[in-house]
Amino acid sequence: MIAFNPALDPRELAVDYAVRKRLQIRDVLLPESALHLHKALLEHTPWSLVFNDGPKVIELKPEQLSRLTPEDSRRIGEGVHRGAQTGYQFLYNIYPLLAEYFRPGAPRTPLFDLFEFMNRPATLDFLREVTGIPSIRWADGQATLYRAGHFLKYHTDETPSQRRAVAYVLNLTEGWGRDWGGYLQFFNDRYDIEEGYRPLFNALNLFTIPMDHSVSMVTSYAPGLRFSITGWLREDEPPGPIAGWR
């Protein structure tokens, strides 16, 4: 059920990508594909909450979140904001798609279809041509949900343990207002915002790593939910077999 918009021309997109090593491709999937994925994120995805405590990433599973008291939530929020004042910090909901795909006995979801689609030879060839990086071998992935107050501070996506070549963000958010925050924003060497991408429905953001970027905080008055599937196009080997890969 997942397919690219056949009107896309990777050669034309490659010309645009080469200018700044980043690009937003609008209407990237067939409309029915994007709606199928949006429904899966909205109705059938068990969301965890992630944030960091210094160098340690904390992931609270759905069953843990259900047991949190208001005092627990207040304490977590205060700790996150305190950490954000002086260092790297993030706060958002996550479904660990890569880990779940390879977890024995994990129930199959429509998001697995997207993971396999991203790793089809034709998809990878399309992404190699657009980015001009022939060494891309596979795509990992996670689903994310940003609610009011969620954010991701400045970083570059470099990780010594993983050979990440390009970051991707498949936006699946409907009707996102321009003043609601949640923008993928890129910085120049003066720390000015050089460009920002609104989380537009059925748009794929791509950018070469490393690149200074962040996700601005979703405003307290934003009524919507910022859904996306994100990850990295990588030059190493996947952790296991992926249906249709190679």
What does this structure look like?
With 246 residues, the chain is an alpha+beta fold. 28% of the residues lie in helices and 28% in strands. It is built from seven helices and 13 strands. Strands 1, 2, 3, 4, 5, 6, 7, 8, 9, 10, 11, 12 and 13 form a 13-stranded antiparallel β-sheet that branches. The protein starts with 9 loop residues before the first helix and ends in a 12-residue tail after the last strand. The mean pLDDT is 96.
The biggest beta sheet is recorded as: 13 strands, antiparallel
Residue-averaged pLDDT, rounded?
96
Shape: globular
| Class derived from helix and strand content | alpha+beta
Q: In terms of per-residue confidence, which ranges show pLDDT below 50 for 5 or more consecutive residues?
A: none
Number of helices: 7
Beta-strand content bin: 25-35%
Helix content: 25-40%
What are its keywords?
single chain, 246 residues, alpha+beta, 13-stranded antiparallel β-sheet, 7 helices
Topology:
Blueprint: H1 10-20, E1 22-26, H2 31-43, E2 48-53, E3 56-60, H3 62-65, H4 70-86, E4 90-95, H5 97-101, H6 110-118, H7 121-131, E5 138-139, E6 142-146, E7 151-155, E8 164-171, E9 184-187, E10 193-197, E11 203-208, E12 213-215, E13 226-234
Antiparallel strand pairs: 1-11, 2-3, 2-4, 4-6, 4-7, 5-13, 6-13, 7-12, 8-11, 8-13, 9-10, 9-12
Helix pairs in contact: 1-7
Short synopsis of the structure:
Helix content is 28%, strand content 28%. β2 and β3 form a beta hairpin. It has helices at 10-20, 31-43, 62-65, 70-86, 97-101, 110-118, 121-131, and strands at 22-26, 48-53, 56-60, 90-95, 138-139, 142-146, 151-155, 164-171, 184-187, 193-197, 203-208, 213-215, 226-234.
